[in-house]
Amino acid sequence: MANIIGAIATSHVPSIGDAIKGNLQGTPKWKGFFDAFPPVHDWLEKKKPDLIVMLYSDHGLNFFLDNRPTFAVGAAPSYGPGDEGFGPPAPREFQGDDVFSWHLIESLVKDEFDIATCQEMKLDHACLLAGDLLWPEQEWPAKVQPIDINIMQHPVPSFKRCFKLGQAIGRAIESYPDDLNVAIVASGGLSHQINLAGFINEDFDRMCLDKIVNAPEDLLDYSIENWVDLAGSQGLEFTSWISMRGAMPKEVRVVTQTYFQPLSNTGGAVLLLEPDA
Ligand code: DHB
Ligand code: FE
């Protein structure tokens, strides 16, 4: 039986990649963010997930405004990085689990989620940097199951819908017959809007961080328009956190939690949850 052992949520910005490359993790600009990760590394070392279910929003690599599914699920045996406009990336290979993917897809469709299924999928910075933050300077020891949520082309799915997606993902994992330790990873948020560089709503972010742990249902009735006003248009990346929370049981325990801003133009947060047995 597959089993959800915990969930890790993190903000992402592309310049995390430059900070890692330049070994800048300890500098004042980055320290407050990177300091969040040692407890996450300890937890991963102890728990050793076999698979991470990666919830994020594709940033235009696989889908663009002309063709944008609401939810897209990877079903490839392996994945690679794509060109995000900086030229072809150095080749890397990330192991998928297509047998699990097709179980997930069948389960989601039975659960009335009309998803796109992607037998090829390029991974962007949202996915790659989240994994590189979990396992710095090493090949990822876990397989990856990418799940993309549209926040790019309106209409985008409601928070309630994303929470229900997470619940359906949780049911799919629990009904998988093979022994598999699964960690849910959410990459995105918190408040930011790239064309309003510097717009960060720390009070709102801190409220979200509290509610996502203790009362996620209080977040589900925000309209998309209201959320964009409060958290910026890319603040909708918090849909990945909402879906993550839907996959987790009602009772959870915080292992570690950090808020740090500005993370580039973004309210930066890291959260590690465990089921509260
Ligand atoms: C930034 C944040 C993002 O979520 C992203 O995808 C790109 C850039 C930023 O704050 O710089
Ligand atoms: Fe982003």
Automatic annotation (TrEMBL):
InterPro entries: Xdiol_dOase_suB. GO terms for molecular function: ferrous iron binding; oxidoreductase activity, acting on single donors with incorporation of molecular oxygen, incorporation of two atoms of oxygen. Keywords: Dioxygenase, Oxidoreductase. Pfam families: LigB. Residues 7-257 form the Extradiol ring-cleavage dioxygenase class III enzyme subunit B domain. NCBIfam families: PRK13364.1. This is Extradiol ring-cleavage dioxygenase class III protein subunit B.
